[in-house]
């Protein structure tokens, strides 16, 4: 299981993380093993947090 990052860590935009995921998969030719697989899983978890944060911010803006 991947440990959760510290709460104080800034969240990168989901689009930035998505581009990093795409670059990693492309660099590996679509085959993710070992360290590249671990990095992929970390990036997917980060992307999930980024999307959630962006949706939360959008909801706050709409409520205001």
Compile the SSE list and pairings.
Elements: H1 14-27, H2 34-63
Describe the structure.
- The chain contains two helices and no strands.
- The chain has 64 residues and is an all-alpha fold.
- It is elongated and about 45 Å long.
How many runs of DSSP E, i.e. beta strands?
A: 0
Largest sheet: none
Q: Alpha-carbon distance between the termini?
A: 37 Å
Could you state the order of secondary-structure elements as H and E? HH
User: What is the C-alpha radius of gyration, as a whole number of Å?
Assistant: 14 Å
| Proportion in β-strands | under 5%
Structural class: mainly alpha
**Global mean pLDDT:** 88
| Assembly classification | single chain
Which of globular, elongated, flat, extended, rod-shaped describes the shape? Answer: elongated
- Proportion of helical residues: 55-70%
Number of helices: 2
Uncertain regions: pLDDT < 50 for 5+ in a row?
A: none
Features:
64 residues, mainly alpha, 69% helix
Please outline what is shown here:
With 64 residues, the chain is mainly alpha-helical. It has two helices and no strands. It is 69% helix and 0% strand.
């Amino acid at each position: 299981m991947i440990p959760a990052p510290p709460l104080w860590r800034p969240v990168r935009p989901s689009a930035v993380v998505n581009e990093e995921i795409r670059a990693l998969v492309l660099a590996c030719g679509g085959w993710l093993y070992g360290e590249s697989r671990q990095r992929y899983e970390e990036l997917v978890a980060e992307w999930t947090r980024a999307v959630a944060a962006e949706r939360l911010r959008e909801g706050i803006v709409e409520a205001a």
